[in-house]
Each structure stands twice: as structure tokens, then as C-alpha cells.
Amino acid sequence: MRPWEMIERGYFPPKAIRRRLIAGCFFLLKFSVLNLKSVRRPVRASRPQKRYVRPPRPFQIPAYHAGMKYCDSNERYLRPTLYCNSHAPEIIALAHQLGAYRKSDREYAESAFEFVKRNIAIELIPLDGAEEILHRATGTCLHRLALLVALCRAAGIRTCYRLYALTSMDTLDETLGASGQGRQWSREIGNLLLHGEAEAYIEGRWIVASIGLTPERQASLNLPITRFGEVALGVWYSADPQSVVLLESIPCGLNAMMRFVYRMAPGAIDKANASLLEQCNRGRVILEHKGEQAYDDAIRGQLKPHMPQAVMAVRKEITFER
């Protein structure tokens, strides 16, 4: 691909992401040099016996047949981009199974949203293409987003990414079992593992698809189960305002840093993935016991959205003159 085409498709990270990548790179290098033994120790400890065993794929990939309709437009938000090959046979076949070109755009997008949300398990792993994600059935938030965007674009629905960094990394600390220096390490990993949501252009307006975590993981965290069209950013989740970017593609650079972390501390990543799987199993028990709808209704009634509140008060140090 020519350089100007890469720029046009958003492969080069915008300023907000570049700052995080540079800062994260310096921190990880410094941390790795000063704490090499503590970083590498989990690697040696984990090699004899891995804790994490990837769960089996819970679905069959439908067969592709020549002549299946798909969107081959080169327009922005419809064309394939990095990690999001909407022309892949597996993606096209699944899009048809989910109702592409038969259902309305809204109904189809909801079906794609629910499929990815419920069938692609959480696993910390370097980025790869939508086809690999589908065959493996696991991935990070960005993997899941890339698959959802690919499915929507294959059906001719303009779809983009809204990426951001969460302001609180407490759940990641819990996942990694981090404390002290490990907590700082996990927070830097969190800065590199951007979160996000998709936006689909349907019936003349952009509709948010905050796919977030699986229902089981959300239940383990006592969070509502996000729905298609529901705004979660700024309500159930909060992000650093300076980190929010709207993109056609996941930019280059993110995967290099993720691969670096994955290589430097595979033991820690293995431990995190095992912890994630355990927490999802705990959340599954909660949903089976209470029922998904009953759980979601109850948790929404208990939690208050994280919305800023304006407080009016008299400040003696501030005076106004006419």
C-alpha cells in the first residue's frame, strides 16, 4: 500500500495515541532495565506449566460460497483496513449467516454486535486479523471491535472506531494481581491497551456500539451488560478526554508495543489470562443463578452513571465588578 493511502486510511497514529506510545515505550524500557529480574522471573516460572488454557470456540464458522454478496466499495468506513479485512471469505460467510442483505441495517448490526459480544472471549494477545480472531474466538477489546467493524462493513454499513484510554485501571490491576511496582507496570500496559467502541452509520445517523466486555466479565465486575446503541462512555465508563480519537482504522504502532509487552512478560500475561477466564466463569455462575435480564435490571438500579455534577457555591476569593 502506498504511503498516502496509509495516511488516508488512518494507519499512522494520531497525536493523542503517539504521545501514549512514546511515553509507554520509555517507561517500559526503563522499567525493564531497572527491574529485569522481577520482570523475567514470571517468565521462567510460567514455562514449566502454563496456567491459561484457551477455551474452545463456541461456534462453527459457516462455509463460504462463491458469489456471496459483500460490500467491495473503496469508500471511507466501508473498505478493509488494518486488522479488519471485511473481504475475507470467513467474514462474508458469517455476515450472511447473521442476516446481511436480508435484515434491515439496524437489525443486522444488532445481530453482529450480539454475536461478537457473546462469542469472542477476552484474552490478552497481540493484534491480528479479523479472520484469525474468528477462528480463535478470543481477543482483547480491539480484536473484538475489529471483528465487529469487519462484519458491518462486509454488509455495507459504514463503521468507524472511537478509541480511548480509560481513566481507571483498577480492573486491570485486579486482573494482573498487581501491587507496588507491578501496579505501575499494569497501568502502563493499560495505557497501551486502548479501549474503544464502534460507531455505525444507520438510517442517517451514527449509532454507538460499545461492545465492551463479555456479559460474564461484566457480571463479574458488577457492571451492566451493554447493549447496541447504548452510550457507555461517560456513563458506565470514563476515559481521558485527551485520548479520545475517531478513526477509520486501528493505527500502526499499537501492536508493536503489545508484542513487546507479550514477549517481555509472558508469565504475567498468562497469569492475567487465567485470571480473566476464572472471573468470566464466576460471572457466568452469577448470570445462571440470577438470570441475565434480572441481573442487568438489578445492577442498573443500583449503579449511578458516572456523570459530572455542577455544584454552585459562593467563593469569597472571586469578585465581580460592574
Amino-to-carboxy terminus distance? 62 Å
Oligomer: single chain
Question: In the residues, how many domains can be counted?
Answer: 1
H and E order: HHHHHEHEHEHHEEHEHHH
Number of helices: 13
Number of strands: 6
Uncertain segments of ≥5 residues (pLDDT<50)? 42-48, 307-322
Radius of gyration: 21 Å
How would you concisely characterize the structure shown here?
By secondary structure, the chain is α+β, with helices and mostly antiparallel strands. The protein has helices at residues 3-8, 15-34, 36-46, 89-97, 105-119, 130-136, 141-154, 170-176, 181-192, 215-220, 254-264, 266-290, 292-302, and strands at 121-122, 138-139, 159-164, 195-202, 205-209, 245-247. The protein is 48% helix and 8% strand.
What does this structure look like?
With about 325 residues, the protein is of the alpha+beta class. The chain has one domain. About 50% of the residues lie in helices and about 10% in strands. The chain has a 4-stranded antiparallel sheet, covered by helices on one side. A two-stranded parallel sheet has the order 1-2. Residues about 40-50 and about 305-320 have low confidence and may be disordered.
Structural topology:
Layout: H1 3-8, H2 15-34, H3 36-46, H4 89-97, H5 105-119, E1 121-122, H6 130-136, E2 138-139, H7 141-154, E3 159-164, H8 170-176, H9 181-192, E4 195-202, E5 205-209, H10 215-220, E6 245-247, H11 254-264, H12 266-290, H13 292-302
Parallel strand pairs: 1-2
Antiparallel strand pairs: 3-4, 3-6, 4-5
